[in-house]
Amino acid sequence: MIRDMAAGPRVLLKRLRELMAEPLEPQERLDRIVRDIAANMVAEVCSLYVLRADSVLELYATVGLNPNAVHLAQLRLGQGLVGTIAASARALNLSNAQEHPAFAYLPETGEEIYHSFLGVPVLRAGRTLGVLVVQNKTMRHYRDDEIEALETTAMVIAEMIASGDIGRLSRPGLELDLSRPASFTGIAFNEGVGLGHVVLHEPRIVVTNLFNEDSDEELRRLEDSLGSLRLSIDDMLERRDVAFEGEHREVLEAYRMFANDRGWVRRLEEAIRNGLTAEAAVEKVQSDMRARMMHMTDPYLRERMSDFDDLANRLLRQLLGRGPETIAESLPKDAIIVARSMGAAELLDYPRDRLRGLVLEDGAPTSHVVIVARAMGIPVAGQMKGVVSMSENGDPIIVDGVEGAVHLRPQPDLEAAYAEKVRFRARRQELYRELRKKPSETKDGVKVDLLMNAGLAVDLPQLAEAGAAGIGLFRTELQFMVASTFPRAEAQEKLYRDVLDTARGRPVTFRTIDIGGDKVLPYFKGSAQEEENPALGWRAIRLTLDRPGLLRTQIRALLKAAGGRELKVMLPMVTELGEIAQAREIIDREVRHLSRFAHHLPTSLKLGAMIEVPSLLWQLDELMQAVDFVSVGSNDLFQFVMAADRGNTQLADRFDTLSVPFLRVLKQIADAGLRNHTPVTLCGELAGKPISAMALLGLGYRSISMSPASIGPVKAMLTELPLGELTAFLDDNLAGPAARLPMRALLQAFADDRSIPL
Ligand code: PEP
Ligand code: MG
After folding, report:
1. 739 Cα: distance to centroid of ligand 1 (angstroms)
2. Taking CB atoms and a 6 Å cutoff, what residues make up the pocket around ligand 1?
3. Contact 128, 158 (CB under 8 A)
4. Share of the chain above pLDDT 90, in %
5. Are 423 and 219 in contact (CB under 8 A)?
6. Hey, which end of the chain has fewer CB within 10 Å, N or C?
7. What pLDDT score does 618 carry?
């Protein structure tokens, strides 16, 4: 007779389903489950061990071992066979357990008479929550279908643990592992501290319907959903959807490969034949795979596992007919979004007033979503490996965007310490708000313009909130970067008009689109070749002069938006003066075109250049004569002067922006501006740090532009600064033989001596 291998597991799952539906106390339910498993598998013993937060596995239920050992017998993670299974997240199938080197005898259980042993990990989202074991007196080897059945049962138990049902049996101080605090360290992407609750950006779908009624029907559902999944991936490969902005094509290719992986599909089908629903099968196969891959050290393979996770999640959504639209719905008031990676536009879908932070498993400081998060003023920490699979929706979480740390399910004392930090920061903000009413002047009465940097509509409310004197740098490329196709002329014009309306007469400097380098537009395939040094490549003004259609459209939108008002336009990455002349020609032609059609033109048009490329340092006087104003882009200028990639974290602290040579460069620029009566601003990150802003004022800068959050701290410094003294101090130290002490330390001492808050 041919035995139906799937009959055993199916009968067992049917029993479990009935048990789950019965109104039982958790202990009673567990006792019955182990009894049913033992009966179904013809085993003399069946035991469940649950992992506690203190890394101890506690016996929670047994049939066959001494019942008095329940909640008393325990093993450390890694100790004995059970501890080994939990630590490795792999099943153990032994015909003579006592011979295994890891075997540890627990006298209280009375298990010495059992020889064969099968133990499987209880897994959820790749994490081990416990171990399920069956034992027999005879020396037997358990079959594959029996292992499969026990693993499937373990999955049901994982859900019971996750639902909190089993957790109710834990004793105070001995809570389950699922509620264990976890800390992660990575990189701080945006300043600030946020306390709140986890919102998984792509919520892991919780499968509640585990048992199928009809395997054939479930197999059909799986096939349909796999078909749609494959189609949607092909579609994405063709369209490169905005949600995949920044993701590599390679990832999508990997998705396609996985979606067609025969081994994967076979395992899914097998789980269904054993009695699971299609979605429970996806969950089980994924969990097994995650546990197996957990031990891999190859970063490439681990990365592929994350891709596989994403794919499984997509398949679950297909099966449950759920789109990715769940955002905003039932969002807590203190949401901290946890994502592997995310498109910039997706972040904008969350209501700003409920966001307290963003945690990314990947991400880079220059990724678009980080730029947008900065503009929204929310703390961001990234490169937090493993945070997505450890988090559950609603878990308490702290994001520390100062230190680059994340604390999941924090202990009360840690939470209290952070809450104090948040209060402290709020008090300081209050102080800065007070300062807004004060004039922006040094202690000795020198007026300074504190401007802000912006680039998106979400920045605009900050103009009033931060008390900025205007917008010193409007990065127009951000609108292009968060879009999925080139923004149309009308959309550009609308944004520029909104900016000018919000500014209400305060000056606004629009920088023409600065793409290329690290600012990639996924939908723009400009360059025919891969650039070896994109920062030195085809970018900014170089690119727009070669594609004049882009620049023309933008200039026209700016001219129209500024009808009847002043318009300031600034060119990025100018290297030689001919570029300014070429751009001016394009602008003049647009002005002529619009006046021919009787358009309302700006009352005045000022053209400026950014000083970012060192070549300009040897033609400063000619430059100042050729433009109406200049602005130092200290981020790029510093990277080119020091030959140090601004995005390379390994070099981040190597060279000091306040070193003598760089300060001398900055002073030359300020002096040339004064000599030529050409206004000079600085709009790089340097302007936003109180100590470097102080240095800039000492070098002669009277206008600096920074992120809105920096205006308060810089103003607090400014109002306490005796500028005359600082100017003399810097002149002395920069003129003589290169300073003996690092300039940063000298400036810090200068401020400390005079109680200037930095
Ligand atoms: C700079 O380079 O300093 C600058 C302000 O431009 P961006 O940071 O946008 O390159
Ligand atoms: Mg720049």
Report:
1. 28
2. 473, 475, 514, 612, 633-636, 683-684
3. no
4. 54
5. no
6. N
7. 98
Distance between CA 359 and CA 382 in Å, rounded? 6
Among 740, 747, 756, 644, CA closest to 696: 747
The pLDDT assigned to 242 comes to 39
Mark 127-165 as b/e (b = at least 16 C-beta within 10 Å).
bbbbbbbbbbeeebebeebbebbbbbbbbbbbbbbbeeb
* Three-state DSSP class for residue 524: coil
Say whether pTM exceeds 0.90: no
Tokens of 348: 């904008």
Q: Whose CA is nearest to atom 1 of ligand 1?
A: 633
Sheet containing 182-185: order of strands: 182-185, 405-408, 396-400, 193-200, 335-339, 355-360, 380-382, 187-190
Nearest CA to ligand 1 atom 6: 633
State the residue for tokens 């100042």.
624
Which of 539, 610, 657 has most ligand 1 atoms within 8 Å of its beta carbon, as the pocket-test mutant?
Answer: 610
Dihedral sign (CA 553, 558, 561, 563): negative
Q: Which residues pair with 47 in a beta bridge?
A: 62, 133
pLDDT reported for residue 244: 42
Q: Please give the pLDDT value at position 2.
A: 40
| pLDDT < 50: residue spans in the chain | 1-3, 240-248, 324-325, 327
Q: Determine how β-strand 471-475 pairs with β-strand 92-94.
A: unpaired
Do the beta carbons of residue 409 and residue 180 sit within 8 Å? yes
